[in-house]
Amino acid sequence: MFLCCWLVLGALIPLTLSTDPGVKVKLTAKGLEYGTDSTDEGHLGIQNLCQIFRGIRGKGPFLRIIKNSGSFDLSVSDLTVGTSIAVESDETGRPAVNTVDCAATVGSANIKFHGGASWLYNLFRKFIDKAIRRALERQICPLVTNAISDLNPQLKTLNVLAKVDKHAEIEYSMVSSPAVTASSLELGLKGEFYNIGKKQEPPFSAAAFNLPPQADSMLYIGLSAFTANSAAFVYSAAGALSLYVTDDMVPPASPFRLNTNTFGVFIPQIAQRFLGLTMKLLVKTVKPPVVTFEPNNTMVKASGTVTAYAIHPNSTLSPLFVLNLVAASAMDLTVGTSYVGEFQVGLLNSIFRMVLRAVVIPVLNVQLAKGYPLPAIGKMQLVNTQLQVLKDYMLIGTDVQFNSIHGASRG
Ligand SMILES: *[C@@H]1O[C@H](CO)[C@@H](O)[C@H](O)[C@H]1NC(C)=O
Ligand SMILES: *[C@@H]1O[C@H](CO)[C@@H](O)[C@H](O)[C@H]1NC(C)=O
User: Fold this and answer.
1) Is 4-24+31-156 assigned to CATH 1.25.40?
2) β-strand pairing of 331-338 with 380-390
3) In this structure, which residue's CA is closest to atom 1 in ligand 1?
4) Per-residue confidence at 1, pLDDT binned at 50, 70, 90?
5) Measuring from atom 8 of ligand 2, which residue has the nearest CA?
6) Do the strands 174-180 and 168-171 form a parallel or antiparallel pair, or are they unpaired?
């Protein structure tokens, strides 16, 4: 008996790049063995490989070559295939694999003939066993090599550049040597957001991080704080981190309305000069927010401004004041510019806390809930997905299912 996972993913050709990856992807033994026990044809080459092995294994009505005059059972045991697979980056930054070295040994092949002239053949069994063993050994490496290179068309479908939305795309090219062990294959990908069409680098770079040794899922994807911060940099540069808050966004149950009556209570000039008008607020960041991941906790530190406008019946806006806002675990407001005389910002704190909690955060959550594309191969579906926030990165553990890439082919 033997198992496919005896396959040794060995030597590799290191890349010369030295950038730390923003995203790491680890395929575990469970992932490498994907589908080996199912009857579906595999779409990962590793799996095809296992089917080749399964074909060799077993007793052999499929090897009934002596027609009508008998049959034989073939059993092969102690098959070991040692193969070294080089994982390299192709010209597009996608991984490419090839076999650099392969050796197959068949410990023993036993053949037993039944019926017909089997008594005669059985006399020569020892010689036949040996011939079969040698023949199998010669056949296995070419099969392995083909199966490994069959992986490449699938790796070519890795989405190296994935569009996120109208502002951003994310790059997943390989930036570091894959770490290959007997039980896992780990890829270091760039995981960096860019403005569509512009490749501007942020003033910070990725820091090294290590995926935990967990192996219950088929696939682990670690998204670093660098990836999140490159997104913040891109959206900030695109001017996308701004939001108009209007009165209809304020929950109906709120005691505060976004109008000059509410603000006039705290700032008398507003009541005098802009009586009975609705207002709107422009909340925007002044520099990219900074995201940090701590165990079970995602923190965002943002600084920005809140500009308040009165809306005249003819739709003209009059600016009332600009507040500077620093938000981390607490929110800090100071007056930047006032067009309505001096006032105490502390009085407005509860209003802005409500606006932040009831309007801005829900809007952000809706944006975040839209998600963003993960590195994916072909028509890969994630199942049993779990998310953990760890120190400096977010870990997604998931199983995968492949929808047929080759149509309905079956083996
Ligand atoms: C994070 O949350 C999980 C699940 O609630 C818990 O098991 C784990 O101990 C927490 N980790 C830390 C560092 O608080
Ligand atoms: C709109 O109304 C305001 C206040 O009545 C006035 O000051 C402003 O000139 C008007 N703007 C236009 C374009 O009519």
Assistant:
1) no
2) unpaired
3) 296
4) very low
5) 316
6) unpaired
